[in-house]
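Suppose you are handed a protein chain with no further information: no name, no annotation, nothing but its sequence. What can you learn? This example shows the usual starting point.
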Amino acid sequence: MPDPSEIVPLPGGSQLFTLPGRLPVGWDEEAGAFSPIKETRVGKTKSQWNAVAAFLPPGYIRTLLPATRIGSRYPTLPLWAYSSVGWRNGKFWATGVLIDPNPHWHPKYFGNDRLLKRKVEMLLGKESSNRLLRQLARCALEYHCFAAKNLFFRRWECPLPTSPSCNAACIGCISLQPSECCPASMERIAFVPTLDEIVGVALPHLKEAEDAIVSFGQGCEGEPLMQGQLLERSIRKLRVETNRGTINLNTNGSIPQQVERLCEAGLDSIRVTLNSPHPKYYNRYHKPKGYVFREILKSLSIAKGKGVYTSINLLVFPGFTDREREIEGLIQLIGKTNLDLIQMRNLNIDPDLYLQEMGKGEGIGISRMIEMLKREFPRLQFGYFNRAKERFYSYG
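A reasonable first move is to predict its three-dimensional structure. Written in structure tokens, the prediction is:
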């Protein structure tokens, strides 16, 4: 049963989904047990039921999965983070905790598509030859990427995708999926931008935007370290032109030597993504090609040693991430690397598919896991978003 502290009114900006091929499971008072609901009768009409899930807005971590039972025919679900949701006293409720109160990512700032379109057209009119700018215009208008929208509103974090290739094959990759699986959430960038194209997008943003961040490593690309030399040249060029703003790298951390060069070039912060502190489960999900888990730890240690603000992007999945062995491994990883921040992100994947890969187990609860980590590492930061360097140690 959910802890009462984790039950929150469904936050603004959430979305509701049906889960085809999954029956909802509820508590049967008469039987004194949980049981699936197969159908219901309204008058003379019988209706089949599908389970329902919520997708929580940025900043919230789900703490429980929807209670479902697979039917005889069930498709692989699209790449969303499915959270339990219910109805009581005239409104929807979900299970989750607000892990990062940064106001910049509130959905209310991203709904004015008419104004966005005008700003996109205006900027493209000045820089129509910049392929990276055109890519980000598509991300903003078609995929409704919040970070891409920020570029055209000249505020906060701006994305800089650069790499069409990757050295991992993550099960939940949102930009490339095998044809027999669920469709990818977006189309991966198909070109490598030039130095001038990157600087043309990033430099005005660093110079002009409020709480300016430019980030290599986005959902619409592969692994940015595959274009390490280009990133190094870009960072050096940007830092010759301005010291303002934060240059960030989102990465799998697979090439420590390249991470070191980027840190020396002027990188301000780095975020390394992983689903587990254990190579066994990391490999099952990320499916690395040409690198091993210990290189990730080396990259984190190098960045921290170079004075770069260092974080992990922990892909959180209730019932797996909060298993005792996972928590123990995470404590060891934090101790070895002396991280500054854990960014906790909901893992977008079909829950049944993920559990098939990770095996059976039982978690102690996401909220309890967070409390344990806070007690173990009092100075460790927790959050959901990348941070401007002026705010490295705020927002919790």
